[in-house]
Amino acid sequence: MSSDQRFFDFLKERIGLDVTSVGPAIIERAVRQRTTLSQAVSADEYWHILQGSRDEQQALIEAVIVPETWFFRYPESFATLAKLASKRLAEINNMRALRILSLPCSTGEEPYSIAMALLDAGFKPHQFKVEGMDVSPLSVEKAKRALYGKNSFRGQDIAFRERHFTEESDGYRLSERVREQVRLQVGNLLDPALLGSEPPYDFVFCRNLLIYFDQPTQQQVFEVLKRLTHVDGVLFIGPAEGSLLGRFGMRSIGIAQSFAFHRQAAPEPAPLPAFVPTPLPVRQPVRNAVPSPVRSRPFAAVSPLPVTVKSANPDAATLLANIAALANEGKSAEARAACDLYLRSHEPVAQVFYWLGLLSDVAGSALQAQGFYRKALYLEPQHSDALMHLAALLQSQGDTAGARRLQERAARSERAVDSERKR
Q: In what residue span(s) does the CheR-type methyltransferase domain sit (predicted)?
């Protein structure tokens, strides 16, 4: 077993992280950083330090988990929550406060957004309570401090900042009124007994977590989420996770961009049959620039990879252009190596994970391709090419409903791009 594999297995055991969901380069970079900071002279020495120190174990987890969050991310979800919360209170005759759970809550932006959305919608403090939970003690402590920099406020509508925050010399302090609605704690979704003594929640937010797990771990985590969510409750997930919940017997509530699901009355569907790819054709230079429509195929057709780069870093731009050139020339191994080089030296971007998905797709590695496509969609939810190729994979595996949802999202993304071009 290689030294790298030991670290992969450690992270899989502790937090369920599937290395194929993020790529080994990200984990290797975190290990190198922690090796240097711990003053270990080799990977073996760092491994011994890791085994003997709970603090170092948590530090490595923190180095791998880079929280990417901001207030009112996916704003339609919070608008939908306010509507559903009013209906839910009526159903229970206002006999108790609504129970809402956010996990992983990261540094607090999501649970605090939930509280602000409901307060702004006219809910009284006694009508709801929010709980936030994360595997990272460091993130939970930051959330409890409730002091945020400008990066936590994105998008055009940040009027909520004037209502709920006070500007200080080192950031924006959240009001006590909002903080009192939220309880924060450390917890791990891999614990089957998580919150076992608590009654179920009316609404559960679990965003962009399932995409980091392999299929058995996804099933394990879903069973915990299902137990935590009231039988009449709603589960909010990330944009790339809808097809996964469909397989687990959940159904979309039908509100666009809300990414909200509830239980189906029908029995859960049988597991999908194993997917066996057909022999690959001879690789040829790609000529068709239009994404192929979803068909029952073993893997998606390859479309030319755009070279357009938004990065201002010339070194990053050179690497991205090189990846595109290698992939379009059919040099899969070299293109994959260039992707790994990019991820070792720069922050991850959606296009690199899309290319990794495409390269895995062409090689017939369907499950690996799905993981990369979902990672691309986590970083850029409206990445049209990733949407189309993931839709093709789902269609080939018999998940027609999941494929259709992704295809519709891709069509909306293309319409939005066309609208911008006409302005």
A: 1-241
